[in-house]
Amino acid sequence: MTLVISIIVIFLCLLLLYNNFSVNKNALYICSSLIFMCLIGMLHHFTIIEPNRFWMAVLMGHIIPLTYLIGPFLYFYTRNTLTASFQLRKWDYLHFLPFAISLISLLPYFLTDFDTKLRLAQSLIDQPAAILKINISFLYPNYINIMLRPIGLLFYSIVCLLLVFQFIKTNKSANPNKKILSIPINWLIVVNFILVLMAIGYSQLTIHFFNTANDTITRANINQSKSPISYILSLCFGLVPVLMLLFPEILYGFEKFKKQPKPKIIPLKVEHEAMIGTAEAIVVYISKEENLRNLSFSVRDICKALEIKSQDVDYCFKMILKTKFITLKKELRVALAQKELSNVNLLSHSMEAIWMNAGFSSKTSFFVAFKEVTGTTPLEFLKS
User: Fold this and answer.
1) Cβ neighbours around 17 below 10 Å, total
2) Distance from C-alpha of 198 to C-alpha of 203, rounded to nearest angstrom
3) Cβ of 256: how many Cβ atoms within 10 Å?
4) Residue 241: which region, alpha, beta or left (left: phi > 0; alpha: psi -120 to 50)?
5) E strand or H helix at 64, and its extent?
6) Which pLDDT does position 229 carry in this prediction?
7) Given this model, what pLDDT does residue 228 score?
8) How many whole angstroms separate alpha carbon 280 and alpha carbon 36?
9) Which parts of the chain have pLDDT scores under 70?
């Protein structure tokens, strides 16, 4: 399971880096930190869970310097996210000192032939406790690397959490009515908290191994003596890819989740010329008396009858007819009412038939619309 989780996390980190690096170069820090952590997980898998001397020879020793970058990169990512920056400061390069020392100390091992590394891996498979005696680092004992990895991660992840909480406290004091907990802040809190738990669990397992390791310990003993801490550590490690999926804005970038403004209608000359005929057809269809008399007549009816898209209807009204559908419909209904008024010898009791035949829902709406369009009332129009 550790191997599968490591591969998934590496894939998600590459996806995160691809989606974010162009707009947020701090993604390089968090991705590198998580990928280096996954390399440790893979080494643990091929050393403890399913021993494989080839992959032990490939990973063991070679990834040790990189493990000293997990904490610093986590720190750079957290701090720069809170300060909206990317550049390293002058004193930040001191964080690379453990990496440089470890790299120099392991240079002789890097230059060792691969067959020797395979034999060393096989000896560790046969006798796990030999790791306390075998030294591949010439500046200091090899077990120093085993102890410093979890201690360093624990220190940096705690510092990162303190930075986040200090940021929240400072901003809350400056803006007491403003909510501070945004998606990036929540992400920083959760991911650093998970890494704190992993560092504590890893430290406990390291201490347990040092206390129980002896010449008689076998791989079967290690597998049978798994403590609850090892299961908690595995659970925390398994939460890392889940968290990345629960924060899609972090994984895919905030740009993809921004609400895109509605595209403005840009009149293209060729399309515009073609739409003029469509606009004329729309006016002709609206002008039909049966449509004007239909109280529920709408743009949907136009689209269905003329077999055109609603976007094209909107374009015709906005860019060609320079009016709104409701305005044109009102004007045409008033024109129909004028025609009715001109063709009949109106008596007072037949006014209702006029506005009903013109498609108005009430006498009031008819008189208001008539006044707006013609500037006179229906009665004044009759007298004229």
Assistant:
1) 18
2) 8
3) 11
4) alpha
5) helix 64-67
6) 66
7) 67
8) 67
9) 129, 132, 174-181, 209-210, 212-230, 254-270, 344-350
Q: Burial level of 211, CB count in 10 A (0-12/13-18/19+)? A: exposed
- Phi-psi region for residue 260, left (φ > 0), alpha (ψ -120 to 50) or beta? beta
Name the phi and psi angles at 346, rounded to 5. -65, 130
Entry field: residues in the chain: 384
The pLDDT assigned to 103 comes to 92
Residue 242 burial class via C-beta count within 10 angstroms: exposed 0-12, middle 13-18, buried 19 and up: exposed
What confidence score (pLDDT) does residue 213 get? 59
CB 374 within 8 A of CB 337: no
What pLDDT is recorded for position 345?
Answer: 54
> Cβ(185)–Cβ(164) under 8 Å?
yes
Q: What is the pLDDT of residues 220-232, one digit of tens each?
A: 555 544 556 667 7
CB 265 within 8 A of CB 30: no
- pLDDT tens per residue across span 165-175: 988 888 777 66
CA angle 129, 131, 133 (to 5 degrees): 90
Q: For residue 77, which of 122, 42, 37 has the smallest C-alpha distance? A: 37
Amino acid at 285: Y
pLDDT at 146: 78
Neighbours of 209 (CB within 10 A): 19
Token pair in block for residue 162: 């303190």
Identify the pLDDT of residue 240.
Answer: 84
Cα distances (Å, whole numbers) of residue 85 to 22, 23, 88, 290, 317: 14, 12, 9, 66, 48
Q: What is the 3-state secondary structure (H, E, C) of 164-185?
A: HHHHHHHHHHHCCCCCCCCHHH
- Round to whole Å and give the CA distance between 54 and 125: 11
Q: Can you give the C-alpha Rg of the chain in angstroms?
A: 38
